[in-house]
Design goal:
Length: 275
């Protein structure tokens, strides 16, 4: 069912698209194959592993890249820690966009990041969100009684020992001197979008997520923003992976820094690194 049939100059040629995914790509333009399979070149494909907090923005980037180039983008979304582990185990990814430098550092130290391709792409902030649309603003500082604000409920966070949003959130609470008091009340989720969902569905009255996550969910209310000095800078690095020989890698990384992607990221509340 999935074979395609091409006829040219009286010849019938059958092939499976998956077999042409990378064998017929940019190189086809210089071998004459493009003249036989003009649609195969346009069907080249790139696989991007991206942090879950990029869900809305990277979906828009995917759409814009495909429209601009005619190539296909496959996006795999999860916590940065989970994606990094998959890459270390040999997952077939071309590009990695992490929600913090630490997991990119781990891959780079293991020789899994292509030299010269890494750059800082985005910045973000972390916020305290509430499930109640009428939730009152909370002044975030050392005097904040977060345990009291929670009442008998839980504080939703991404995994505080592995997922960047959880790591940043824990660092902020530690900096404010309230982590030990709040820690027993934390409900940890596999990634930041799952923590966001806990609050959006009313399973936790409050949560700590990225500012961009709050923008993407109408059912939560931002009640406070953690000061930047309470946690390490939130930086999203991007890079091509050593195991990949995809000729689209440089094109996609350039696109991430271009006007089209910039618009998509800013619409979701991100700031471009260095701005």
């Amino acid at each position: 069912m999935f074979e395609k049939l091409y006829k040219k100059q009286g010849l019938a040629i059958m092939f499976k698209p998956a077999l042409l995914r990378r064998a017929v790509g940019a190189a086809a333009l210089s071998t004459g194959v493009a003249g036989i399979f003009p649609q195969a070149v346009a069907a080249a494909e790139i696989t991007v592993f991206a942090a879950a907090s990029l869900t809305n923005a990277i979906t828009e980037v995917e759409t814009r890249f495909e429209a601009a180039t005619g190539h296909d983008v496959i996006v795999s979304l999860a916590g940065s820690s989970a994606l990094a582990r998959q890459i270390r185990q040999g997952a077939p990814a071309d590009i990695f966009i992490s929600a913090n430098p630490g997991w990119m550092d781990t891959l780079e130290e293991g020789g899994l990041v292509e030299d010269g391709t890494r750059f800082d792409l985005l910045n973000n902030a972390i916020v305290l969100i509430g499930a109640d649309p009428e939730a009152k603003p909370v002044e975030i500082g050392p005097e904040m009684d977060l345990a009291g604000v929670l009442g008998g409920g839980r504080l939703a966070m991404a995994l505080v020992g592995a997922v960047p949003a959880g790591i940043y959130g824990k660092a902020a609470l530690e900096s404010l001197g309230i982590w030990d008091e709040v820690a027993p009340r934390v409900a940890q989720a596999d990634n930041v979008r799952a923590a966001l969902a806990f609050v959006a569905m009313g399973e936790a009255p409050y949560g700590i997520v990225y500012a961009t996550d709050a923008v993407a969910e109408d059912r939560v209310t931002v009640v406070g923003t953690f000061p930047a000095e309470t946690h390490p800078p939130i930086v999203y690095p991007a890079a091509a992976l050593t195991a990949s020989d995809n000729p689209l890698n440089a094109t996609f990384l350039d696109f991430l820094r271009g006007h089209e992607a910039r618009e998509a990221f800013k619409a979701e509340g991100f700031t471009m690194a260095g701005e």
